[in-house]
């Protein structure tokens, strides 16, 4: 860790140039020849990334940032705060500490935090930053977390792990065994050190694949930020053997949309019907959960089709997703399309439909944008239909 980057003149330069065009800035002469110009440029670029994602870091003075990629890959403050609301206790050990955003929020819920990071420089950076962020209940271990667990007699209330995919698994459907650390292989060892484990994974992990590799799973949390799934959390407890609950959260500016259901619990069956006055599209977290029948049952609204994952009702309800008022439902054929949508402007979405959005736009010359929202889908009788709607805010 190059602490010369904390020199007042350099920090002022970084602050003044936050948001600047790095390509143009890189062509300038380094005003601080005693410090690597690339290092200064990286601080500017990473701080720019942190403005929206990590406002607490951005607002603090004398913060050192790792690479831009590390900032991009770390949890946002909003998802970290939500995560910390799920668990609490005396002690937590984070086996894959990274830039420390999760631990910053865990430190508000636990008496003591242990931050493990195999990259010694990154560990030192987080330690330095936590002093500036006034986090006083966190200790740092630079090195392999396995060695620390082997050497300590302490038992922790929680173990937190954010395993990273191995380089050779890029582009593939991955399993947890493809990650470092290999959690499925180490699970029994981890249970010697804690009865409760929280595992964070990338959103593209298939939930059923994760369940096939893990045991004692009590809850699966699916966290989305502004309708984009950011992470999955597998909450496991050593002695647990009951049903698994899927809990979804979509963090929005004004509120958090939540929905949950018990996996495999069939209380009743979903209902189906033709489009009514209102249309509902579940948020991304619910879509990832696969709880499509459960939505119909929980909210007492009808599905348009088994595979369409759109819902309808005569009365407007509070719903975790987008809400629309149906202006018109038309059959998908040449005459109807020419009369209603050809050469017009509309937002186009397809659900359980044989054509892509791109093909539909090209075929009917529909411009993007505007106040109309058109859902190309399939109804309960397997007919291809188009729902022309306006959005309800």
TrEMBL record:
Residues of the THUMP-like domain: 321-391
Q: Where is the PG-1098 ferredoxin-like domain?
A: 278-320
What's the name of the protein? SAM-dependent methyltransferase
Q: Where are the transmembrane segments?
A: none
Q: Which InterPro entries match?
A: PG_1098_Fer (IPR054168), SAM-dependent_MTases_sf (IPR029063), Thump-like (IPR041497)
**Highest taxon of source:** Bacteria
- Organism, as annotated: Flavobacterium ginsengisoli
């Amino acid at each position: 860790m190059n602490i010369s980057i904390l020199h007042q003149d350099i920090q002022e330069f970084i602050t003044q140039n936050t948001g600047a065009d790095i390509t143009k800035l890189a062509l300038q002469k380094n005003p601080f020849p005693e410090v690597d110009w690339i290092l200064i440029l990286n601080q500017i670029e990473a701080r720019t990334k942190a403005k929206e994602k990590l406002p607490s870091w951005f607002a603090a003075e004398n913060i050192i940032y790792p690479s831009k990629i590390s900032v991009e890959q770390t949890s946002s403050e909003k998802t970290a705060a939500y995560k910390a609301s799920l668990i609490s206790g005396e002690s937590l050990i984070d086996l894959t500490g990274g830039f420390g955003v999760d631990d910053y929020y865990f430190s508000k819920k636990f008496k003591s935090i242990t931050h493990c990071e195999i990259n010694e420089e990154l560990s030192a950076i987080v330690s330095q930053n936590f002093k500036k962020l006034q986090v006083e209940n966190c200790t740092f271990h630079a090195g392999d977390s396995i060695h620390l667990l082997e050497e300590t007699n302490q038992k922790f209330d929680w173990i937190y792990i954010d395993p990273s995919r191995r380089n050779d698994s890029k582009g593939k459907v991955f399993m947890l065994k493809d990650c470092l650390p290999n959690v499925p292989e180490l699970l029994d060892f981890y249970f010697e050190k804690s009865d409760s484990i929280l595992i964070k994974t990338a959103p593209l992990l298939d939930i059923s694949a994760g369940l096939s590799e893990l045991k004692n799973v009590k809850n699966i949390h699916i966290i989305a930020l502004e309708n984009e799934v950011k992470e999955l959390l597998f909450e496991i407890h050593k002695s647990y053997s009951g049903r698994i609950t899927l809990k979804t959260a979509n963090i929005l500016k004004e509120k958090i949309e939540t929905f949950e259901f018990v996996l495999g619990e069939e209380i009743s069956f979903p209902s189906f019907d033709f489009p009514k006055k209102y249309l509902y599209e579940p948020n991304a977290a619910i879509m990832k959960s696969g709880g499509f029948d459960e939505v119909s049952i929980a909210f007492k609204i009808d599905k348009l089709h088994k595979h369409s994952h759109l819902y309808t009702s005569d009365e407007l309800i509070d719903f975790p997703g987008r809400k629309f008022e149906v202006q018109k439902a038309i059959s998908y054929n040449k005459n109807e399309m020419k009369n209603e949508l050809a050469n017009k402007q509309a937002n186009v979405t397809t659900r359980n439909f044989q054509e892509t959005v791109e093909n539909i736009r090209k075929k009917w010359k529909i411009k993007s944008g505007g106040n109309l929202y058109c859902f190309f889908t399939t109804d309960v009788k397997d007919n291809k239909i188009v729902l022309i709607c306006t959005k309800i805010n």
